[in-house]
Structure formats: C-alpha cells, structure tokens
Amino acid sequence: MTEFSLDLNEDQLTLGKWVHDFAANVLRPQAAEWDEREEFPYPVVEEAASIGLYGWEFMAEIMRNDPTGLSTPVALEELFWGDAGLGMAIMGTGLAVAGIAASGSQAQVIEWVPQCYGSPGAVALGAFCASGPDAGSDVNAYRTRARYDEATDEWVLNGTKAWITNGGLAAVHVVVAVVDPGLGSKGHASFVVPPGTKGLSMGQKYAKHGIRASHTAEVVLDDCRVPGRCLLGGKEKLDERLARVREGKPGNAQAAMQTFEATRPSMAAQALGIARAAYEYSLEYAKERHAFGRPIIHNQSIAFMFADIATELEATRMLVWRAAWLGKQKRIHNAEGSMAKLKAGRLAVHSTERAMQILGGYGYTREYPVERWHRDAKIYDIFEGTEQIQQLVISRAISGLRIE
Ligand SMILES: Cc1cc2nc3c(=O)[nH]c(=O)nc-3n(C[C@H](O)[C@H](O)[C@H](O)COP(=O)(O)OP(=O)(O)OC[C@H]3O[C@@H](n4cnc5c(N)ncnc54)[C@H](O)[C@@H]3O)c2cc1C
After folding, report:
1. Residue 334 has pLDDT above 90, yes or no
2. How many whole angstroms from 259 Cα to the centroid of ligand 1?
3. What is the rounded distance in angstroms from the CA atom of residue 65 to the CA atom of residue 194?
4. Which of 35, 246, 301, 318 is most enclosed, with most CB atoms within 10 A?
5. Taking 80 as the threshold, does the pLDDT of residue 156 lie above it?
6. For residues 110 and 101, what is the distance between their CA atoms, to the nearest angstrom?
7. Is the distance from the beta carbon of residue 190 to the nearest atom of ligand 1 less than 6 Å?
8. What are phi and psi of 285, to 5 degrees?
9. H/E element holding 349?
C-alpha cells in the first residue's frame, strides 16, 4: 500500500504545471467564444491531442505510473481551472473509458480504449450512455433493452439514452442496457457499440445553461446489433452473475454504479478547478477595484468571503485527494467519493456566485468570465449523481441503513 502524502512528487508537479500552462494559454483565451458557439470544439481537442493531453497514452500514463492516485485530480483541477466546457470536451471520453475499464476484460480494454481517442489529426470521442429520458438517478428504471440473438451471436439494443456527453458524435458508445428486467439494476450489462454501427443515431442535441462547449445529446438505439464480443466482461461472466442474483446471492455492484464509483473523485477535482478559478480571479479584482476611496478588499465583509472560500478550497482538495488515494488503493468505501463530489460541486457553485458578487455589475455580464463559470459550476450538483444522490450514498454508508 502506498502511504498517503500531501507532498506531490516531481512528476506530479511537472504534470500540474504542464496542464496549467495549456489551460492558461489555450483554453482561457478561447473559452468565451466556444461557450457562445455551443459547438463541439474539435480544434481544441486536436490541439490537446497534438501535445499528448488527449489520448489513451496520456490516461494510461497518469493512471498506471501513479501509485498515489493524485496525478488525475491534479491534472483535472488545472484543466478545469482553464475552462469547464472545453475541459469536458477533452475529458468527456474518459467516462466511456471508465465504463470499459470497470466492466471489461483486459482484451476489451486494449481493443476499445484506443478507438475512443483516435489519434492526433483524427481524434475520436467516446460516450458513456447510462441515463434515459425517464431515468437518471433511478437506475432501476432504465428502459434500454439488450436481447441476445443466439443464431447470430449478436446483442440487439433498443431504446433511447438521454443527456449523453459526446452522444452521437462519439466513435465508441458504451451503453448500459437491461438484460433481465426482473432483476432491476442488477439485471443490467454494458455493451460497446463500435464505430459506424447501424441503428445508433443522435437524437436531440440539448441547449444548455453551462459547459456549452461540451456536446450533450440523446442517443437513439433502434435494433442496433453488436457482436457478442461487445458485451463487456463477456457472456459467461454475465450468465454467472445473473444466476447468482436470481438465487438471491450477493452480486457485484451494477454496471453504471461501478463506473460512477470510479469517476466521482475526478468529477470533484473538475469542480474544484472551477471554484479555484473564480476565487483567484475575484481576489485579484477585489485588490484592484476601488469603492469609497480604497480597494474593496479592505472591507472585512469582502475579505472574509475570501478567507472562507480559501479555507473551503483547501478542505475540499483534501477530500478529493483522499478519495482519489483510497480509490487507487482499492479501499474506497463509497462514501468518500460521494463526499468529495458533494462538497466540490457545492463549493464550485458558491465560489462562482460569490465571485459574481465581488465583481458587482461586471460580474453579471459576459465581458467577464465569472458568470460563465457560475453557469458551468451548476452541472456538478447534477450529473454523475445529483447532490441528493450523493447524500443518499453517504447517509446509507454512515448509518448502515437503507435510507430511502
Ligand atoms: C450536461 C449533462 C451531461 C450528462 N452526461 C451524461 C453522460 O455522459 N452519461 C449519462 O449516462 N448521463 C449523463 N447525464 C445525465 C445525468 O447523470 C442525470 O441528469 C442525473 O443523474 C440526474 O438524473 P435526472 O436528470 O433524470 O434527474 P432525476 O433523477 O429525475 O432527479 C430530479 C431531482 O430529484 C432528485 N431526486 C431523485 N431521486 C431522489 C431520491 N431518491 N431522494 C432525493 N432526491 C431525489 C434529484 O436529486 C434531482 O434534484 C448528463 C446530464 C447533463 C445535464
């Protein structure tokens, strides 16, 4: 087991600086434009790929060569400090990769993960499709069905997925579908839908409040046939698992939950990046802006806002790093990831809202970035488990009871 330490190693310090420079020099200058355009920013993702910041090798490097688990949150905090919409355009594929890693065999990881990213000059995207139009938090209510066609050794997928990051644009879609509706969420399995598969199409594209450079759309599956080898984990394992569940024996966590458990500290690190961006920006502003003959920060009521947010930022980073470290040691007990995400989402909303307050009228305009950061921040209370779902996970973990 690797000791928990707050001292980042040389590699992590270098990584943090490298990502920060990209965020400051590439993301920040373009962020407002892509927010207005509300289109997927392929040139920005290509630029990230050209320096090695978008690609499976980068993900493998920061995950494999890091026994502490801290490299990922360090990189994500810096990237999302730059901009969350562009950050999500670069990192959204990671959710599909986490879905493949959570349920797939090593051979499936090797086959599909590189295809999620493509290569510099021809980047590809991945999408993780769990939520449906009438089922986000309530994973028992997913409706997309997967039926096995024994004659052709294919799985046939039918249904609509909602709110999917990179949905319909992606080369590789990872779809969570119901195999046995009688088993609730324990009857789910995850499937890779390979590039160019017939029967998968993009439904409506959502016009969003924030992270507008990130693409979010419905994914429609209409008799979408995928080869048997696209079932993540394989049929033998699935049959064994379903048999155990039918006999009332404890099974593994279901497919979507396994993915979210792995990604919550990362989502929290992204929110932390937004919170820190707003804090730093408004702190500088408060030192410059004069009212009643002195910089506004000389008012205790303003300075104390910064004192509180600085303290919250440090506390949140500790939660995020602890969850990431525990995750790496495979010692996460569920609630640590949820605590980190709950806290970081709320802080991002609070810090960006306070930043708008500090900037006064300017803060409310699109001339300054804080209103965009505030719009971006809110998603962290909603996706990958809403505020209330994190509270549910935490309250169950601390009480040992089935809180409803
Ligand atoms: C921009 C964006 C990107 C997304 N990307 C993806 C993606 O890539 N893949 C994917 O699969 N999904 C994605 N989602 C979906 C997202 O994860 C869901 O929106 C989220 O899980 C909430 O589900 P819902 O929208 O159905 O809300 P609901 O589940 O209907 O919840 C509505 C409200 O009720 C509350 N609530 C629900 N149940 C309970 C309960 N038991 N106790 C207390 N309160 C409760 C919720 O907290 C929320 O406040 C994305 C969503 C957005 C907006």
Report:
1. no
2. 15
3. 29
4. 35
5. yes
6. 10
7. no
8. -60, -45
9. helix 335-363
